[in-house]
Recover the amino acids of this structure.
């Protein structure tokens, strides 16, 4: 019983719980003070905006846990969008075939990042800053300033069709299934334990028999494939393939991952906090838009939350460690009294 109480106390005081509570507070305060936040239409738009962010944040969380980063995710999304549009212009009219090609493209783009990081030993930050520009430039080469927007209505409406009886798009079920799959890998398999080991010490993980380079390579591939899936959804949702699709989205994705409690240095974090952080960021942004807050202010808010995402978990960890030490000192200084003889 004492063990379960300790676990419950730990869960309620964790950073995941703090982020989830912040999301609930933002939702409640917004519903009470801003007209339209409490409407089903508002939450439909929140869900639609959150879907591509969560799709990319799921594999990126695992990448960051290993101590790496991928800043090219939004550019991979944009390049996928224009390739889908160009293929449609060339007469490829099978949506499953288009999705399959886009997923292969995204995996290949992620593989390029993975090869530079794992084969050549280059820092992922520098590599993905470079491919961020490279992939976005290739998107403009493929499509230029044009937009492809003549997709069948069955495709565009099908991508955002609501679950019967609700206003929530059915795509959220796909996202939920993928979240469960990534959660199982991270929390219930040796692969997940290996990811944390890599983040804490790649050298120690290598000596313990973990294939660090191979694992990181496939994580970059998975991130590319999920970015491509997000690109397909983005194109069909807005019924438009443009080279600038998703520009700047990497800021929101990285902010969500770090705000969700994943350490930028690796070795710590999880998916629950990240998903709660996505909900918090998207809800806050849409609520402020309804309150007619200027776009520049929204960017400042996102940047401030990004800084908080780096500082907050570290400060919370320091406070928990200080509290633990204080309790330990009290336990040593005040031993249990013994009966007098």
């Amino acid at each position: 019983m004492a063990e379960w109480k300790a676990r419950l106390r730990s869960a309620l005081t964790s950073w995941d719980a703090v982020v989830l509570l912040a999301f609930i507070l933002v939702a409640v305060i917004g519903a009470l003070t801003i007209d339209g936040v409490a409407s089903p239409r508002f939450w439909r738009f929140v869900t639609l905006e959150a879907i591509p962010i969560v799709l990319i944040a799921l594999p990126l969380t695992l990448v960051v846990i290993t101590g790496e980063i991928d800043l090219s995710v939004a550019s991979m999304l944009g390049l996928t969008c224009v390739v889908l549009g160009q293929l449609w212009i060339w007469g490829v009219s099978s949506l499953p075939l288009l999705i399959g090609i886009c997923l292969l493209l995204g995996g290949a783009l992620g593989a390029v990042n993975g090869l530079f990081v794992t084969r050549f030993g280059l820092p992922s930050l520098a590599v993905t800053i470079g491919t961020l520009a490279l992939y976005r430039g290739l998107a403009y080469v493929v499509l230029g300033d044009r937009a492809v927007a003549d997709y069948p209505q069955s495709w565009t409406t099908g991508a955002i069709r609501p679950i019967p009886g609700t206003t929530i798009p059915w795509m959220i079920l796909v996202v939920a299934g993928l979240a469960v799959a990534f959660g199982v890998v991270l929390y219930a398999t040796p692969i997940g334990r290996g990811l944390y080991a890599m983040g804490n010490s790649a050298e120690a993980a290598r000596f313990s028999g973990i294939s660090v380079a191979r694992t990181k390579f496939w994580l970059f591939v998975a991130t590319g494939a999920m970015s491509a899936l997000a690109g397909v959804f983005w194109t069909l949702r807005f019924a438009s393939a443009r080279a600038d699709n998703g520009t700047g989205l990497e800021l929101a994705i990285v902010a969500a991952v770090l705000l969700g409690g994943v350490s930028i240095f690796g070795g710590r974090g999880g998916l629950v906090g990240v998903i709660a952080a996505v909900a918090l960021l998207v809800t806050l942004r849409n609520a402020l838009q309804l309150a007619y807050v200027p776009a520049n202010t929204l960017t400042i808010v996102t940047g401030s939350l990004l800084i908080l995402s780096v500082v907050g978990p570290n400060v919370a960890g320091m406070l928990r460690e200080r509290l633990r030490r204080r309790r330990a000192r009290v336990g040593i200084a005040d031993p249990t009294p013994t009966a007098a003889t």
Observations:
- Residues 19-312 form a domain with the ABC transporter involved in vitamin B12 uptake, BtuC fold (CATH 1.10.3470).
